[in-house]
């Protein structure tokens, strides 16, 4: 598999690698990255089936390994890796399989636990619906992805997301749902990272998909206090990009001094 990597031509410092949520692509990070300082080299990648990356066999671990090799091919020994939701699952797969890559770790709107049986079944139902020919299966996710504040007060954000969900690539939806359904619990992997590794755990207070207990468990394993962003739901990077840019900048400065 060869993944689409978006990076500056030259990387002279530890990069910040950003991993996007399901079912979006690396452009999800644009409102955040445009608010970050120029001296932070930012690398984004598209998950299989999204953006410029072709879909492959399901598996978050294989994608995580591709991300690690791509970062090394850019000439970096280490990176600050941050992921939102599915991107967080991939960041945790990196924490388990290639902990030496990490100069810092950011986990946003995500959780370390594996799916319960019912959640796994719901994912596979989406795959079956796609195979039956239903092509707008992701649109129904909108209510769960944006917090009520954004839904009530930012019609432009709501409409843009609705369009992205309508256009969500079917091969990506299938790859991601199959891959997420089989992911393991990663709490022990987080707890075994080196003590004092700079880390960030962040969630929107209106997130319907990831609970404060999910954030607390990851934060406890990493030895940090979770950060809550008021007035944002699951897609906190889209809803409150300025707060996410500030939190990622702080993580980056703590990791790279
Ligand atoms: C995401 O935002 O990436 C998804 O909600 C993750 C998931 O389905 O578990």
Describe the 3D structure.
- With 257 residues, the chain is α/β, with parallel strands linked by helices.
- 44% of the residues lie in helices and 12% in strands.
- The protein has twelve helices and seven strands.
- Strands 1-3-2-4-5-6-7 form a seven-stranded mixed sheet, sandwiched between helices.
- Strand 4, helix 3 and strand 5 form a beta-alpha-beta unit.
- Helix 2 crosses helix 3 and helix 4 runs antiparallel to helix 8.
- The longest helix has 15 residues.
- The chain is globular.
- The model has no long low-confidence stretch (mean pLDDT 97).
- Bound molecules: D-malate.
- The site of D-malate has 7 residues, from loops.
- D-malate (MLT) binds next to loops.
Task: Write a compact overview of the structure shown.
This protein is an alpha/beta fold and 257 residues long. The chain has twelve helices and seven strands. D-malate binds at residues 21-22, 85-86, 180, 209, 234.
Strand order of the largest sheet: 1-3-2-4-5-6-7
* Mean pLDDT across every amino acid position: 97
Gross morphology is globular
Bound molecules: D-malate
From the alpha-carbon coordinates, what is the Rg to the nearest angstrom? 17 Å
Task: Supply the number of helical segments.
Answer: 12
Order of H and E elements: EEHEHEHEHHHHHHEHEHH
* Residue share in β-strands: 5-15%
Amount of helix: 40-55%
Strand tally is 7
Classification by helices and strands: alpha/beta
Please summarize the sheet with the most strands.
Answer: 7 strands, mixed
Show unreliable segments. none
N-end to C-end Cα span? 34 Å
């Amino acid at each position: 598999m060869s993944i689409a990597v978006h990076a500056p031509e030259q990387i002279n410092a530890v990069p910040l690698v950003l991993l996007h949520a399901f079912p979006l692509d690396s452009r999800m990070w644009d409102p955040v990255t445009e608010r970050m300082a120029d001296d932070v080299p930012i690398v984004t990648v598209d998950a299989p089936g999204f953006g410029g990356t072709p879909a492959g066999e399901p598996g978050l671990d294989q994608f995580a390994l591709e991300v690690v090799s791509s970062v090394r091919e850019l000439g970096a020994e280490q990176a600050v890796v941050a992921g939102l939701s599915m991107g967080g699952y991939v960041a945790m797969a990196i924490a388990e399989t290639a902990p030496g890559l990490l100069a810092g770790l950011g986990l946003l709107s995500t959780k370390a636990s594996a799916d319960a049986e019912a959640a796994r079944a719901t994912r596979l139902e989406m795959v079956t619906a796609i195979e039956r020919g239903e092509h707008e299966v992701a649109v129904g996710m909108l209510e769960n992805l944006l917090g009520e504040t954004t839904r009530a007060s930012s019609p432009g954000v709501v409409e843009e997301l609705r369009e992205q969900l309508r256009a969500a690539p079917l091969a990506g939806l299938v790859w991601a749902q199959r891959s997420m359904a089989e992911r393991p619990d990663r709490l022990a992997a987080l707890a075994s990272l080196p003590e004092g590794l700079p880390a960030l755990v962040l969630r929107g207070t209106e997130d319907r998909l990831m609970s404060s207990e999910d954030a607390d468990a990851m934060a406890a394993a990493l030895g940090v206090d979770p950060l809550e962003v008021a007035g944002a739901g699951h897609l906190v990077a889209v809803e409150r990009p300025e707060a996410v840019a500030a939190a990622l900048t702080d993580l980056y400065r703590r990791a790279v001094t």
